[in-house]
């Protein structure tokens, strides 16, 4: 069974891998948090306002779910959490910029979620650049495809992923984006004793227009495929017929900061505090042990009534 996951895709854009921060793991998140703290401290010691604005401009590249949630969290962390520790003139020079290549945010989600995400971010003060791509990343700047140069010392890259690289002695069928093509049982076409799932696999399924479309690289897709593969391995060992995999989407949820989330399920769109609570509850339920669930629940509850910790980890 192959499930090596995916890695950040920088699309061979000059300077992107060298000068930007990816967000793919917990260590990446810690590095971003520490970097924000350092930038704020550096900015508080300079009298040059243009330099200060460059230090406190945070550019998020990628308007998918990760980019949207990150932009909302960054805005709250920079503009609200730090406001308790730094003077207003420092906070006023901080800004968040979200660069998205498509004409809308979270393009794989429904229209109402896309619109709500944009409205909420703009209301928070996030500058959203739609229909723009980054063609170069430098030490303290980015250049868009429209030759717009944005000076910023922080660029966070969440513009997409690519499947992890594995070498095979034989020939394997791959999709245009490099994922391994699997059949209805999630097996490789030329190797029926090998299963693949998650971001590493390309499984096409008919949509409402009766057209075969590869499933998106979502956590819930990988989770359901994992259960299906485990069951098929049991059936294969027992010498029984395998079960074809059929994906049923459970819906989408996006956090847009504390007390705000937007979601869609069964053609219904909902947003607000209750949606945010549901979002957190679902994530809490994914933790493996009850001990971790209780610890995280207590930690989240305490965070509602106290400012975030701004010490470096």
CATH domain class name of the largest domain: Alpha Beta
Distance between the termini: 35 Å
CATH topology of the largest domain: FAD/NAD(P)-binding domain
> What fraction strand?
15-25%
* Rg (C-alpha, Å): 22 Å
Coarse shape: globular
What's the pLDDT, averaged over the residues?
94
Binned, the helix content reads: 25-40%
* Spatial strand order of the main sheet: 2-9-3-4-5
Largest sheet: 5 strands, parallel
Known CATH architecture of the largest domain: 3-Layer(bba) Sandwich
* Unreliable residue runs: none
Number of domains: 3
Features:
5-stranded parallel sheet, flavoprotein, NADH dehydrogenase (quinone) (non-electrogenic) activity, FAD/NAD-binding_dom, FAD/NAD-bd_sf, alpha/beta, FAD/NAD(P)-binding domain, single chain, 313 residues
